[in-house]
Design brief:
The structure holds two protein chains of two kinds.
Chain A lengths: L9 H9 L13 H8 L3 H17 L18 H8 L4 E2 L4 H6 L4 E2 L3 E6 L5 H11 L12 E6 L6 H18 L4 H10 L2 H6 L1 E5 L3 H17 L3 E7 L12 H22 L2 E6 L1 E6 L2 E6 L2 H4 L5 E8 L2 E8 L6 E8 L2 E4 L8 E2 L1
Parallel strand pairs in A: 3-7, 3-10, 4-5, 4-6, 6-7
Antiparallel strand pairs in A: 1-2, 8-9, 10-11, 11-12, 12-13, 12-14
Helix pairs in contact in A: 2-3, 6-7, 10-11
Chain B lengths: L12 E2 L4 H6 L4 E2 L2 E7 L5 H11 L12 E6 L6 H14 L1 H7 L13 E5 L3 H9 L1 H6 L7 E7 L2 H4 L7 H25 L2 E6 L1 E3 L17 E3 L2 E5 L2 H5 L4 E11 L9 E2 L2 E11 L7 E7 L2 E5 L2
Parallel strand pairs in B: 3-7, 3-11, 4-5, 4-6, 6-7
Antiparallel strand pairs in B: 1-2, 8-10, 9-10, 11-13, 12-13, 13-14, 14-15
Classes of the chains: A alpha/beta, B alpha/beta.
Pfam families (chain B): Rad51
Keywords (chain B): ATP-binding, Nucleotide-binding
Protein name (chain B): RecA family profile 1 domain-containing protein
């Protein structure tokens, strides 16, 4: 059992790995005092880490072999699922406040929908996630690859390059290196590598989009290290040429089911970017995400990006386990970052 | 279906013919993308489109696309006299380029030969045109390939025909998405730069401030009016980048010789990024002169 599977914060994981604690068994016979010294953290924090490690040893099926037999093959008890959920990895958004309301980042195994008006930063967030998923394991990331499905043509390689460069810069800054390691690390992290690890598909019609999503399963089976699928945007091709709205709903929910299945079976994150539209209710126009009411069931999580004064905010609108909350973020030349005014308080609703 | 290699996929840009504007736009108008310029009438959107028709003919080494271009206009009349005037100054300022690249026919190189103009009067006509434009782009009546489409303006096609009823609005937005997706398909297939211009409408009330706010700028002001781009939210979803041109009139004390300072009044024009995937929130002042549109370095 690896340390990187522990439900710890990325920095803690990185510290453990760089101090040489790679397996959980290596943590089994160490005192909090020693661990605190090795990781240069407080004794309290070290004790916390050991506690979590101890809990997961108890959960580890290889050690504790209780005979849970599913009623049907593939069936699981809720306890099993809860246990597994602790090891679900998350992809950071590079904005601490945003990560906080999302419970640590974009969840793998789940479909997350992100919507907002043009210019709010949907594509920027998509690119940021495609870069961040590639942060190496020893830096607290996933070390995965990304699939980027572009339906709108807003994906700009020069921007990906910028964001990747800034991401590398930040990673190198946040770690303390010996001179030699620094060089090695610097060489291993090139923006070009980040670009080659993004599988980019441009689709020009909704039939192409559906065909591609059907093909994804095969593609991901061949490229197991894909950890995120981003569709920018899921909406565009479905907003023309559909006179038969019932057909549209069927096609869309079929697509959503496939994406959910992908997310579960390959343990990857699916991020769907959506546009907003005005909806006529009770005599007034209101803004909602596009594709209608039935589509809102299609995603596990839903995040709405909006303007508040001159600041960008994200609002967690739907989540099975987290409470609704909003947090500011900003779009900078480096990508998505903490809002510049740096108001730390997060409004809980 | 194969993923594309991002390392070979850098976006080509078409120069605007002015270094300051190019720097502001990080190289010019991007290919394989729809760029929209929004402004009230008389700000210079047609001027910059005409200039682009010419600068796209520059060879790639000079920031152009070495291409001919298609100008689809819905506002009358087509400003051919101004285009002719611009083409003369374009030729004289790029004399070395065109004399060296086609040495035999240098004297006969006429930029106007590589600009194709077509008028459309309704959205349906535009869709019909776009549907059969493939053949034209594949075999253009010019030695240069077509790499630039300018539509001036998209708003004029939609401003008369549609009622403000839910049914008509729905039909209208469906047309937007249809046009946008056809343009994007063409842009992808032939690696075209697409520029569309749009008009503004006055904005009232405060719903615009947060809910309906599109892009980086809280409010757009031009000539002291608060405006927002025409065609609403659904069209905003259709374009990749949106630029906004504004002007304001300033009274200066004495008359000067510059063309822009007539009668002691100076017009300041500004180009701003409303949203774009590759550009930060920024703005750039520009002037419209006899020779064309030029950015003012700050």
């Amino acid at each position: 059992m690896e340390v990187c599977n522990l439900p710890l914060s990325p920095t803690q994981r990185a510290k453990l790995v760089s101090a040489g604690y790679t397996t959980i068994s290596s943590l089994s016979s160490i005192s909090p005092l020693d661990l605190a010294r090795d990781l240069s953290v407080t004794q309290n924090e070290a004790a916390q880490i050991l506690k979590i490690a101890l809990q997961s040893t108890r959960f580890d099926p290889s050690i504790n072999n209780n005979n849970n037999v599913g009623i049907v093959t593939g069936g699981q008890t809720a306890w099993d699922m809860l246990r597994e959920e602790q090891f679900v990895t998350r992809i950071t958004t590079s904005c601490e406040d945003l990560d906080n309301i999302l419970g640590g980042g974009i969840n793998c195994q789940e479909v997350t929908e992100i919507g907002g008006v043009p210019g709010i930063g949907k594509t920027q967030l998509g690119i940021q996630l495609a870069v961040n998923v590639q942060i190496a394991l020893e830096c607290g990331g996933l070390g995965g690859k990304a699939i980027y499905i572009d339906t709108e043509g807003s994906f700009m390689v020069e921007r990906v390059f910028q964001i990747a460069e800034a991401c590398i810069e930040d990673l190198l800054e946040s770690r303390v290196f010996q001179q030699k390691d620094y060089q090695a690390c610097r060489e291993s992290m090139q923006p070009q590598t980040f670009l080659t690890n993004i599988f980019y598909f441009r689709v020009c019609s909704y039939t192409e989009q559906i065909a591609l999503i059907n093909y994804l399963e095969k593609f991901i089976t061949e490229n197991r290290d894909v950890k995120i699928v981003i569709i920018d945007s899921v909406t565009f091709h479905f907003r023309q040429d559909f006179d038969d709205l019932a057909l549209r709903t069927r096609v869309l929910s079929g697509m959503a089911l496939k994406l959910m299945k992908l997310a579960k079976s390959f343990s990857l994150a699916v991020v769907l970017l959506n546009q907003v539209t005005t909806k006529f209710t009770e005599g007034s126009f209101q803004l909602t995400l596009a594709l209608g009411d039935s589509w809102s069931h299609a995603c596990t999580n839903r995040v709405i990006l909006y303007w508040n004064g001159s600041e960008r905010f994200a609002y967690l609108d739907k989540s099975p386990s987290l409470r609704s909350a909003s947090a500011p973020y900003s779009v900078t030349s480096k990508g998505i970052r903490v809002a510049s005014s740096h108001c730390k308080k997060i409004r809980m609703m | 279906m194969k993923p594309e290699n991002l390392l070979n996929l850098s976006t080509q840009k078409c120069t605007t013919g002015c270094l300051n504007l190019d720097r502001f736009l990080s190289g010019g108008i991007p290919c394989n993308s729809i760029t929209e310029i929004v402004s009230e009438s008389g700000c210079g959107k047609t001027q910059i489109s005409l200039q682009l028709l010419l600068s796209s003919q520059l060879p790639i080494s000079h920031g152009g696309l070495s291409s001919s271009s298609l100008f689809i206009h819905s506002e009358y009349p087509f400003p051919f006299r101004r285009l002719h005037q611009l083409s003369l100054s374009f030729l004289s300022s790029n004399l070395n380029v065109f004399s060296s690249s086609s040495s035999s026919s240098s004297s006969s190189y006429n930029p106007l030969d590589h600009i194709f103009v077509r008028d459309v009067q309704s959205a349906e006509e535009l869709i019909g045109l776009l549907a059969q434009i493939d053949r034209f782009i594949e075999n253009p009546p010019s030695p240069l390939p077509v790499r630039l489409i300018v539509i001036d303006s998209i708003a004029a096609l939609f401003r008369s025909e549609f009622d403000n009823t839910p049914k008509d609005l729905k039909r209208r937005s469906s047309l937007f998405f249809k046009i946008a997706s056809m343009l994007k398909l063409l842009a992808k297939k032939f690696n075209l730069a697409v520029l569309v211009t749009n008009q503004v409408v006055d904005s009232m009330g405060n719903d615009v401030v947060n809910g309906m706010r599109v892009g980086n700028l809280g409010c757009l002001y031009t000539s002291g009016r608060r405006v927002c781009p025409a065609l609403g939210l659904s069209w905003a979803n259709c374009v990749n980048s949106r630029l906004f041109m504004s002007r304001s009139v300033e009274i200066v004390g004495k008359e000067t010789d510059l063309e822009e300072h007539i009668g002691g009044v100076r017009t300041r024009r500004k180009l701003q990024v409303v949203f774009a995937p590759h550009l930060p929130d920024s703005s750039c002042e520009f002037v419209v002169l006899r020779e064309g549109v030029f950015g003012v370095s700050s």
